[in-house]
Amino acid sequence: MDSLVNWYNASLGSWLPKEVFIFFVSMLPFIELRGGLVVAWSLKIPMLTASLICIAGNLLPIPFILFFIKAIFKFMKEHNILKKLVLKLEERASRKSAGVEKGEFIFLLLFVGIPIPGTGAWMGSLIASLFEFNIKKAFLAILLGVLMAAVIVNIISYGLLENLVG
To answer: Per-residue pLDDT for 140 more than 60?
Structure first.
């Protein structure tokens, strides 16, 4: 995350508020809220402010993924637009969701909430959409998972890191 912070400071820091930057960082797949909060800590943004901004940024793309990703993937495969990537994402979602049909709510909550590589709101939404989970339940589980991840990452970044570095 240091390189992302250094890039921001060198490229965007003079004209883009750091709060806007962490909002966009939190929207990115694979980085999401987890990265956004670490970047916010590095930029000395207060924890509550950073949490609210990163949660909002992480949640913004989720309804679009839940409602439209299947149609987008279908179009991309039919028109050979990044078809290999789409197939890879579908296969990865399938692998990560094996056997969750009955416990989909708890699965999504923990999948999104426990901040380990390859998990998060984007992949959770992709799994929920591809396997046709109930959208309202899926969104609630993802929302609670994002809140859970925010608490865990805040403890690590604003708690542990602050004590180690500060």
So the answer is: yes
pLDDT at 163: 67
User: 8 CB contacts (<8 Å, ≥6 apart)?
Assistant: 16, 18, 21, 39, 43
Contacts with 53 (C-beta within 8 Å, 6 or more apart), sequence order: 19, 22, 23, 26, 36, 40, 45
Contacts of 106 (CB under 8 A, 6+ apart): 141
The 3-state DSSP class for residue 43 equals: coil
pTM over 0.90: no
Given this model, what pLDDT does residue 2 score?
84
Do residues 101 and 91 make contact, with C-beta atoms less than 8 angstroms apart?
Answer: no
Q: Tell me which amino acid residue 123 is.
A: M
